[in-house]
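User: Structure tokens for both sequences below?

Assistant:
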Amino acid sequence: MNETPVWLEGLADDAPGDGAWTRTEIAHGNFEVWCRFRVDSAATAPTHVVIRPAEGGDIAAQARGITTTVLRELNPAKEVRGFQQQRKELIEREKYPLSEQVDAHLRGSNRPTDPYLAALALRYERLAESGERSPVRKLMTITGRSLGTVKSHLQLARKKGFLEAVGSKAGGRATDKAKRAAAEAASTLPGEVLGE
């Protein structure tokens, strides 16, 4: 979701339910479209749409106004998909606050350090929870490592207490030790790859 500008804050006071605004550009970036969606509903259309000149747009195009040509570029279905994707990413960030650092670390680590193994455990748990059919194969893609290497790193993560098995099922749960190690590594080295 885009941060709501001050000028939009009171516009949807009459709208039912909690909402969030999205922003896109149309007409070659000359106009911006703000759409409000309810976040507490399964509705699939915006409740409000605001079109206005975009900052830095072509002044001559903006002076012609919001023509039918400009309006034809407005695509509510596309706005819905964009909103749903943003909402999904926001939920993911709230559920997995270290996900960006974890993935960056998995791609950039040269050896199985403790912060790397903690990141591996967290990502493995996330993949298993999401229903990924083959979390290990997905980890191969993320890390750029072979199947055998990823499997041995997962075994090492279990051995060092970063990942615990969930009964006899495939999958695993990252331990509190893994969460602490990843959070500590992320806060110690901002902007860098964890553990390097």
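Moving on to the next sequence.
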Amino acid sequence: MPTDAADEVANLLAEHGKELEERSAQIREAVVALEQREERARELHFRVEQVLRDGALELDLRQAELSTRSSELDAREAAVALAEEKVESRRRALGAVELRAAAATRREDDVRLREQELERRAAELAEYARELDERVASPAHSPSRPVREDEHVALVSTGDRYRLIVRTGPPPKPGTAVELDDMPYRTLRLTASPLPGDDRSCALLEAEPELPG
């Protein structure tokens, strides 16, 4: 082969080899970029799974709380139904139209006042719960801070107002019955103490509905 032809072939081979190296570098860069995208995709998938798990846990907690409140409402409705049956029986026994009308008027007034009172107390309790939740979310109630077990405070409904009571021992679990001053109460939920700087738990207590005698 002539020298010029050999040199031309060598140049072509060198150029082709250079092109192959450039393409190989581009492929390596593409592989690295693809691996980075895969890593970001895995991280995003992990975050999405974590958000879904946290959301499911929160929904479970809310469902449990709603179930407890639904049971309490069922008990109240049963008590009201029993009271209504007794009132109706007494109304029929009286027999007089004027007495029946007067009893019905009083009953309507009582029911309306009870509804207003229950709505007001429910709004107050919701406001207390919101304030306590805000305190739980504040730095002063960080989850890393130890909670005392020798004492706890109880937020107790006392008819037209609420009061805080300091009790010894760990707080009662949600849904359990508590007796204070010979009166039955039900534990609605547990949260942090509303007192500033207090490291005790707080139990929200609601009076059990009184069954008619």
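User: Anything stand out in the second?

Assistant: The CA atoms of residues 51 and 57 lie 10 Å apart.
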